[in-house]
Amino acid sequence: MRILVTGGAGYIGSFMVKRLIDDGHEIVVMDSLEKGYREAVDREAIFVQGSTLDKAFLAKLFSEYTFDAVIHFAAYISVAESMERPGHYFTNNVFGTVNILEEMVRHSVNKIIFSSTAAVYGNPQQVPIPENHPKNPENPYGESKLMVEHILSWYRKAHGLRFVAFRYFNAAGAALDGSMGERHHPESHIIPNAIKALLQNTTFTLYGNDYNTPDKTCVRDYIHVLDLAEAHVLGLDQISRSEGGNSYNVGTGKGYSNEEVLSMIQDVSGKELEITLAPRRPGDADELVADSSKIQQELGFEPKHSDLRTIVSSAWKWHSQHRS
């Protein structure tokens, strides 16, 4: 298949591109490089630089290449930034996706895998969180992703679009050999920030110790990026042989508190982390843990690398080798 991967120069996108190329697919990566890195793109992929908000660019791209499917990663992802700049998030995440969908319709491309988020649920009423849980986003980032999920459903009804929306819990980790890993500027995720603090001998800031959890730090379900890529392969297979139109949680069903994550990082590194406390960030839920039974039953998904030690060890290897 020839697959368009938007945001393919980013963290998750670059892992996805490598996985698809290993499977023998022809990949076109589209990325604005506002957040991504050209060197992260597999050399066997075709790379084009451009924005989902540039309609003329998208029209040219879809005219030059015939695509069998789209995997859509291109979005802004910071909860904190979305609280400060909601318009920025709705414009990029929602309007940009609609622009992609319109070109797909014009060129009869009817398969898309969409990167959604557990943030669509907001503060959960039950944990683990099933897919049919009420959707009450606590921030514009989550709201923007939920809007796109609704839009996908309408495009399915109107145009026969086949889609899978994957609601990511916390993507984490790196290639097991340390060759690929997580890079965000600015970085907002706890694992890379804590590791960088250790490597640079600086203080790590922990946001919030007043959550409604056993140790008062927020709890998250971490999914290794390699397992996340595998979920997309399974989703692509599903919409290649059926009508699709499904949403799945991608997580493990087990949550770790920030305190537990920091303890594991210190254990793996053999170093003691200096921690300072700061107020919790607006929009952060107390506990987000997936009920992942649906994706396991319907797609046969089995995470292989998502235990906390493997996640942290792979991330430590990556950051140790690529200090920046």
What key phrases describe this protein's structure?
324 residues; alpha/beta; seven-stranded parallel beta sheet; 18% strand; three-stranded mixed beta sheet; 40% helix
Task: Characterise this structure.
There is one protein chain. The chain is an alpha/beta fold. It is 40% helix and 18% strand. It has ten helices and 14 strands. It has helices spanning 11-22, 55-64, 79-84, 86-106, 140-159, 190-199, 225-241, 258-269, 293-299, 308-321, and strands spanning 2-6, 26-31, 46-49, 69-72, 111-117, 162-168, 170-172, 204-207, 219-220, 222-224, 246-250, 256-257, 275-278, 287-288. A seven-stranded parallel β-sheet has the order 3-2-1-4-5-6-11, with helices on both faces. It has a three-stranded mixed β-sheet with strand order 12-9-14. It has a two-stranded parallel ribbon with strand order 7-10. Strand 1, helix 1 and strand 2 form a beta-alpha-beta unit. Helix 2 (55-64) packs parallel to helix 4 (86-106), helix 6 crosses helix 10 (308-321) and helix 8 (258-269) packs across helix 10 (308-321). It is globular, with a radius of gyration of 19 Å. It starts with a strand and ends with a helix.
